[in-house]
Specification:
The complex is a heterodimer.
Chain A (H helix, E strand, L loop, with lengths): L7 H16 L9 E6 L3 H18 L2 E6 L2 H10 L9 E5 H9 L3 E2 L23 E11 L23 E4 L4 H13 L8 H8 L5 E5 L2 H9 L5 E5 H9 L5 E3 L7 E9 L5 H12 L1 H8 L16 H7 L14 H19 L2
Parallel strand pairs in A: 1-2, 6-7, 6-8
Antiparallel strand pairs in A: 3-10, 4-10, 5-8, 5-9, 5-10
Helix pairs in contact in A: 2-9, 4-12, 5-6
Chain B lengths: L1 H7 L10 H22 L12 H7 L2 H34 L2 H12 L6 H12 L4 H8 L13 H11 L1 H14 L2 H9 L4 H12 L1 H16 L2 H8 L6 H11 L3 H34 L1
Helix pairs in contact in B: 2-15, 4-5, 4-8, 4-9, 4-12, 6-13, 8-13, 9-12, 10-11, 12-15, 14-15
The chains are: A alpha/beta, B mainly alpha.
């Protein structure tokens, strides 16, 4: 190279070399690398802190955990359909999971590759992928503003909470489960949401805000925009651990709940690693650690005794988890587009 | 004729300099856009049968048209407010000298230096029920209950006008600086007052800047997904969130593509209108 720096030919040559380099496979040891989706907030925190080290210890493989909403995971897998998927393990709530199965985005889970699969409670063993936890909803309220803890959804309709109630759109399982439950209590079922919409209309005067997604929903409580509203058990605990004055109560009419499962993505080159990653999430050790405060992740492994807040607020023993209110998400998925439009129409200012 | 054409076209070989950018645009903008248009012409979610079904269903539902109309109107309101507040600022900045002008310019550009998410969140803190404005109002006894600014259209308009302000002020400043001060002096000398001079001389001469600013701010305001969502919430549904809802929450790509195309064409029409306005105003001034 000349003293004056690179001449034109050298620059071109270096550029070509760089281009050639970048055309090589991203990682020569790509067979030993796993990319797993995780949810934001508590989930990514516990997956980084506990699941990642346990998985690396078990396999020695490299791991990347990427925060993505369920809908984003499905969008990305749909866009990459037929080619190499952008990640190998998906984490989805019940509704999106059924969608992913329908769209052919995930492969069947092989219990032979997962020694801990059989230790899960029966409802959490699914041939498309095990439930790694369960989520449930109830009412969150600000104890500084509301002295008598609410007990049922009806409390949200109480005139004294005019302009103070927060609900969330149907974009999240949280919003969808709330609508399905008030529908159930108003005498409807998953085939028609008319009773729910009729009931929702009478809630409008009490609404302070309808959040666009569950991230914005947490903000409503954190910024004091709402004093009472529907919320997820785990999100409430996360908010509380950050110093937000908020308490969670289950509603007396039964606790709406859903499974959150992990899945091996179709066409992943590392199916074995993906199974091991998911299996690690099913171990009693990991689920015991995740159940501690401030995480409060509900275990699905029957061998993990319930403790802490999960025991005092959600269920006494593992079998109680099966007695919660579950919905038919295949039917809910089918109705979702129409209900989203109806929801848009009804809540519009 | 050939000579004039030769003057208009770049010299032989010069056009090659634009090739990398053109290629980049074709690959990463034109191609995806065409893909979007193609997807919008599928009747079903799984994209098996082609047709105009998505467009028909968009135009046959009154709510969709309301959402489109209110989004376009929101842009008009926010752009008007931005112009109303930005013009004086640009005027002072254009007249300021040396360091003062540098300071003005810094203040104008400052918002662009932070992310739009951060800027919007700052407004959430200001407009909230327990925010700065409401606390002040209540402390002064001007309101007994918090005023609803967050999740209201007024709030969205205020925030958009501030967040997009630099796009209005910068082109205005440039135009105002280029106006020969002798014009205003001549007008004064001929007996026109300050206001008359402003409306008859300065304002018409700054029209190109006003229109450039309005085009930029308008396009930014109607597509400001983050601001619409964080400040407006879902009860005020605007097109960007509506598109997101259809594409992401419901995975209905053909419908989302169709409403994107409709939205894009509507915004383009409004911008074309502004461009025509600028042509006619230029024709008026320069005859």
């Amino acid at each position: 190279m000349s003293k004056k720096g690179m001449n034109r030919r050298e620059v071109m040559g270096a550029g070509a070399a760089l281009a050639a380099l970048s055309a090589l496979p991203f990682d020569a040891h790509s067979a030993e690398k796993l990319v797993a989706a995780t949810f934001g907030g508590t989930w990514s925190e516990v997956h980084r802190k506990f699941l990642a080290p346990a998985f690396k210890k078990r396999t020695g493989a490299a791991l990347t955990q990427a925060v993505m909403l369920a809908t984003q995971q499905i969008a990305k897998l749909t866009a990459a359909k037929g080619g190499t998927p952008p990640f190998d393990v998906a984490i989805l709530d019940e509704g999106p999971a059924l969608n992913a199965i329908k769209l052919g985005l995930i492969e069947e889970y092989n219990p032979a590759k997962s020694p801990n699969f059989g230790k899960l409670l029966k409802p959490f063993q699914d041939k498309w992928g095990p439930s790694v936890t369960m989520q449930c909803i109830g009412i969150a309220y600000n104890p500084n503003k509301i002295k008598t803890p609410p007990t049922s959804w009806e409390d949200l309709w109480d005139p004294k909470y005019k302009g103070r109630v927060g609900i969330t759109s149907l974009a999240s399982t949280l919003g969808m489960a709330f609508l399905a439950d008030i529908n159930r209590l108003a005498g409807g079922n998953e085939s028609s949401m008319d009773p729910a919409f009729k009931k929702l209309k009478t809630l409008l005067p009490n609404l302070a805000a309808v959040s666009a997604n569950f991230g914005a929903h947490a903000g409503l409580f954190a910024q004091g925009e709402v004093d009472i509203g529907v919320q997820n058990f785990n999100f409430t605990q996360t908010l509380k651990s950050k110093g937000v004055p908020v308490e969670f109560v289950r509603v007396s009419s039964g606790t709406p709940a859903w499974r959150t499962s992990m899945h091996v993505v179709r066409n992943t080159g590392v199916s074995d690693l993906a199974h091991t990653y998911i299996d690690t999430h099913l171990t009693a050790d990991l689920q015991t650690a995740l159940q501690q405060e401030p995480y409060n992740v509900i275990p699905t492994n029957g061998g993990v005794p319930l403790c802490c807040l999960v025991k005092s607020q959600i269920a006494e023993k593992p079998s109680d988890l099966q007695k919660m209110v579950f919905f038919d998400w295949t039917k809910i998925n089918a109705g979702r587009p129409d209900w989203t439009n109806a929801f848009n129409r009804q809540i519009r200012v | 004729m050939t000579n004039r054409l030769a003057l208009l076209l770049p010299k032989r070989g010069e056009w090659q300099l634009a090739l990398p950018l053109a290629l980049f645009f074709i690959l990463f903008f034109i191609a995806p856009l065409l893909l979007l248009v193609v997807i919008s012409f599928y009747n079903d979610q799984l994209m098996t049968t082609a047709g105009t079904g998505q467009y028909i269903s968009f135009f046959s539902d009154g709510l969709n048209l309301t959402v489109l109309w209110e989004t376009l109107l929101l842009g008009v309101k926010a752009t008007a407010l931005s112009l109303f507040m930005g013009y004086p600022l640009a005027w002072f900045a254009a007249r300021a000298k040396g360091r003062t002008q540098a300071f003005f310019l810094f203040v104008v550009v400052l918002p662009i230096l932070t992310s739009v998410v951060v800027r919007t969140f700052a407004w959430v803190v200001i407009l909230g029920r327990q925010g700065l404005i409401n606390k002040t109002l209540m402390a002064l006894g001007l309101a007994s209950e918090p005023v609803r600014l967050l999740f209201s259209e007024l709030g969205v308009v205020i925030v958009l006008a501030q967040v997009q302000m630099p796009l209005m002020v910068l082109p205005l400043m440039t135009t105002l600086q280029r106006i020969d001060p002798n014009f205003a002096d001549a007008s004064n000398a001929l007996g026109a007052g300050a206001w008359r001079t402003f409306f008859k001389v300065t304002l018409p001469l700054s029209m190109p800047g006003i229109i450039a600013g309005c085009i930029l701010v308008y396009a930014a305001c109607v597509t400001a997904f983050v601001t619409h969502t964080l400040i407006g919430g879902v009860r005020l549904l605007y097109m960007p969130l509506f598109i997101f809802q259809q594409a992401m929450d419901l995975q209905n790509w053909p419908f989302a593509a169709a409403i994107s195309v409709v939205f894009m064409i509507s915004v383009l029409l409004i911008i074309a209108l502004l461009v025509m306005l600028s042509r006619s105003s230029r024709a008026q001034i320069y005859g």
